Amino acid sequence: MSSSASAGMPDLQNAMNNDDDLIGQVVGAIDTPALVVDLDAMERNLATMAAFAAEHKVRLRPHAKMHKSAELAKLQMASGAVGVCVQKTSEAEAMVAGGVYNVFISNEVISPFKLARVAALTRAVLPHGGKIAICVDSLTGIARLAACMNEARKASGIATAIDVFVEINVGQNRCGVEPGAPAVLLALEIRKHPALNFAGLQAYHGKAQHLRSPLERRAAIAQAIKAVVLTRAMMEVDGIKVGLVTGAGTGTAMLEAESRVYGELQAGSYLFMDADYAANHREAGQPKFEHALFVKTQVISTHNGHGPYAVCDAGHKSHAIDSGLPMVHAFSSRSKLEYTNGGDEHGVLTPTEGSTRLPGLGSLLWLVPGHCDPTVNLHNVMIGVRGGLLKGVVERIIRVDARGALS
User: Fold this and answer.
1) What is the greatest pairwise CA distance in the chain?
2) Which of 36, 45, 117 has the alpha carbon at shortest distance from 318?
3) Contacts by residues 350-353 (CB-CB < 8 Å, ≥ 24 positions apart)
4) Which of 101, 283, 332, 370 could link 128 by a cystine bridge, Cβ 3.0 to 4.6 Å?
């Protein structure tokens, strides 16, 4: 490469990455593929969940692992959330760095290196009146957490403490100690350490979130509640007060809220509402949320030889496929399309039964991701549009602060 060509590269790179230049432009100016947030739909979802939590007198602590954005976390807290959840230490660090000071790491952290970072976060939020919390499900986890907190106390001279929740296995069969006596043992151990504050139980049933029928979800959460009630009763016999039971997701939040056992909801996907959650059958009283997260794409090739189909420029690099392929958002019955696998860079589009139109070259389309969390993690920014997907205007660029925060 010549020196003159090389000298021009930084300017070209800056031009490619300056998403802020989009602010004020019409939605058609957004290049593809791009991750777009319908701000009007998102704010309606935000208000719906806030009202639901207030009506049921439960705290709301949404999962920021979904949007990975400090800006959106602060928006949720301004609407009544007490703080946010994350799953990774690095996600917690991104939230705190972005001005979010009430963070619950709703996961087990075993590595002493990570636990030292957790201890540092407890000090970082102190000047802001914040709080860090974490889960445990083993005696080893408690011992390592206590050791790191004690070491940090000695080094800083600040007597910080961390809220600790005992996670119980309520059917997910992932993390979590078994309900009852094993959980009591952990709570008793936590209380031996001055730097650890036993704060309650985490009882999250992830599998239940995507059970399609209301009867299946009710049965699963009924078992989870039974496990919580048993564990809480056994702890009280040992003089342990269970301050808070936290859990729930977008698919079952109504059930935990109605239980009078859970005091805090961790639902997060409600803000964007992906295609997989939308496939659940609703029941009366369950809050209704709208799709607010889309991958904007365009048709780059059309074909009639092997049955009519079109190809768009949004493949697996622009959306996650762990919960299925994306759904093509249709503005009318004539525009319904099915998205099928085209690989990393492409999606193949075919008309559905009853649809009469295949999009032409350059046509703009909107995909609803199957799973919002890992889809967001593929993008540096989300482009916030006000006024709808067809005639809206770009209002803000939302940074994905915790993109790639895996540790």
Assistant:
1) 78
2) 36
3) 350/307, 350/308, 350/309, 350/310, 351/308
4) 101
Q: Yes or no: say if 243 and 166 are a contact pair by the CB < 8 Å rule.
A: no
Matching residue, tokens 């205007």: 393
pLDDT, average across residues 379-404: 97
Over its C-alpha atoms, the chain yields an Rg (Å, rounded) of 23
**Size of the chain, expressed as the number of residues it contains:** 407
pTM as predicted: 0.93
Tell me: pLDDT of 242 over 60: yes
Class of domain 39-272: alpha beta
Choose among 113, 124, 123: nearest CA to 148. 113
As to burial, measured by CB atoms within 10 angstroms (0-12 exposed, 13-18 middle, 19+ buried), residue 207 is: middle
**Can the peptide bond before residue 127 be classed as cis, meaning omega within 30 degrees of 0?**
no
> Hey, which CATH number is domain 20-37+290-399, 3.90.470.20, 2.40.37.20, 3.40.50.2000, 3.40.50.300?
2.40.37.20
Interval 288-334: pLDDT, tens: 999 999 999 999 999 987 778 999 999 999 999 999 999 999 776 56
User: If residue 185 lies in a helix (H) or strand (E), which one and from where to where?
Assistant: helix 181-190
* pLDDT confidence of residue 16: 45
Q: Return mean pLDDT, the chain.
A: 94
Say how far residue 176 (Cα) sits from the centre of its chain.
Answer: 20
Instruction: List the domain boundaries for the chain.
Output: 20-37+290-399, 39-272
> For the residues of 269-335, what is the DSSP string, one character each?
GGGT--HHHHTSPP-TT-------EEEEEEEEEEE-BTBSEEEES--TTTS--TT-PPEEP-SSGGG
